[in-house]
Amino acid sequence: MSAGTAVTGGSGRAAVLAGGRERRLYSGAAWSVGSARGPVDRGWLGTRAWDGAELDGEDLWDLASVTKPVVGLVVMALAERGALSLAGTVGALLPRYRDTDKARLTVTELLTHTSGLPGRVPMYRSHPTRESLLTGLGTLPLRAAPGVRVEYSSQGFMLLGLIAEQAGGQGLDALVDELVCAPLGMGNTGFSPGPAARERAVATERCPWRGRTVVGEVHDENAVVLGGIAGHAGLFATLADTERLAVCLAGGALELLRPETFALMTAPHTDGLNLRRALAWQGQDPSGSPVGPSFGPSSYGHTGFTGTSLWIDPGTGRYAVLLTNRVHPARDGDGIVDLRREFHSVGTAHASPRP
Predict the structure, then answer these.
(1) Is residue 311 part of a domain?
(2) What is d(CA 192, CA 197) in angstroms, rounded to the nearest whole number?
(3) Does 296 map to a domain?
(4) 286: which DSSP letter?
(5) Which CATH number belongs to the domain containing residue 16 in this structure?
(6) For residue 261, which of 269, 270, 252 has the smallest C-alpha distance?
(7) Which of 169, 172, 218, 259 has an alpha carbon within 20 to 30 A of 77's alpha carbon?
(8) Are 54 and 47 in contact (CB under 8 A)?
(9) pLDDT of res. 52
(10) Dist. CA 318–CA 87, nearest whole Å
(11) What is the 3-state secondary structure (H, E, C) of 38-86?
């Protein structure tokens, strides 16, 4: 095994992930697989950077787009409390966009990536301040009419972060803490880690834009311009905290949402379109799933560009967490795609039934 290895449970996943480090897909990895009862296989291996300290299990990972479903949980909690409606529109909820073509987009369309907003737009290059980037969201051309196709859009979740703040009357960081982290005891999860926490952070990219290796600062450049707190990226968490969220989700998220709200959130909402999406979650597509065919048709989850993922299979009550820094030292290469599928396929035949 690689430096910094600690494993509880089976060795199959550890071997897969050790192989990924040997191929230099990342310097470090952490994982947890289990059910609502708790983890049955967890561990970590490698180093925080290629020239850094060994992982010790207290490491802080940039979750990247796994931020999105956490913000989705905040939006659903606010809807449950009557602070906003899923049928509400951007124009009604965010007055600054009232006179733009974004005004008619609904919260549901943003959550399901069916708003028509494009994704993966490097707005930071032409909008170097928070105010200019937010203004730019209003002028960003729609690529499709709302509701006709799924196109993954970080820009849509930027708007959702603003909507949550407006409806909740607090900053997004405070809302995530109050509505998700505090109920689950996720004390090592949040935006913009402080100096002490950054010492435990796992390195991401040697960023050409910033001219340095990013450690303890959000990798996503658009999120940097937005101040590190955004609806699409920016959360950092430890393995144990991400595990707590996964265990909660595998048990029906009763600590966070009412059963009917959680069922609505995790049900497919785009069947008949090009990709399966729930509310803030990716569904299990028949082909091309990030986790391969090893999770059932009702499963859902999310991946992060930095090499992170969280996946839940309600049919078996099983969850899987994978944390890596696959963008270190550069984002080139797609080896994580096959490795992630291999990781999720280990032990599929021994999945635990829902308790």
Answers:
(1) yes
(2) 9
(3) yes
(4) S
(5) 3.40.710.10
(6) 252
(7) 218
(8) yes
(9) 97
(10) 32
(11) EEEEEEEEEECCCCCCECCCCCEEECHHHHHHHHHHHHHHHHHCCCCCC
* pTM of structure: 0.96
Q: Are 232 and 69 in contact (CB under 8 A)?
A: no
Which residue intervals of the chain are DSSP H helices?
12-22, 67-80, 90-93, 107-111, 130-139, 154-168, 172-176, 182-184, 195-198, 221-225, 239-250, 259-266, 335-345
Measured at the CA of 225, the angle between CA 125 and CA 166, to 5 degrees, comes to: 130
Asked, for residue 355, whether it belongs to a domain, the answer is: no
Query: Out of 11-25, 48-62, 338-352, which region has the weakest mean confidence (pLDDT)?
Result: 338-352
Residue 126 contacts by C-beta under 8 Å, 6 or more apart in sequence? 136
- Name residue, tokens 């196709």: 149
Structurally, how many domains does the chain consist of?
1
In one-letter notation, the amino acid at residue 250 is: A
Longest pairwise C-alpha distance within the chain:
58
Q: List the Cα angle 189/190/193 in 5-degree steps.
A: 105
Q: Determine the Cα–Cα distance for residues 117 and 146; give it in Å rounded to an integer.
A: 8
Q: Running DSSP on this structure, what letter comes out for residue 189?
A: -
Owning domain of residue 79? 1-348
Torsion of CA 99, 100, 103, 107, to 10 degrees: -140
Question: Are 299 and 312 in contact, with CB atoms under 8 Å apart?
Answer: yes
Phi, psi of 201 (to 5 degrees): -75, 145
pLDDT tens digits, residue range 2-42? 577 888 877 799 999 999 999 999 999 999 999 999 999 99
Is the backbone peptide bond immediately before 268 cis, with ω within 30 degrees of 0?
A: no
In a domain, residue 30? The reply is yes
- 278 with 249: CB under 8 angstroms? no
Look at phi and psi of residue 291 and say left if phi exceeds 0, alpha if psi is from -120 to 50, else beta: alpha
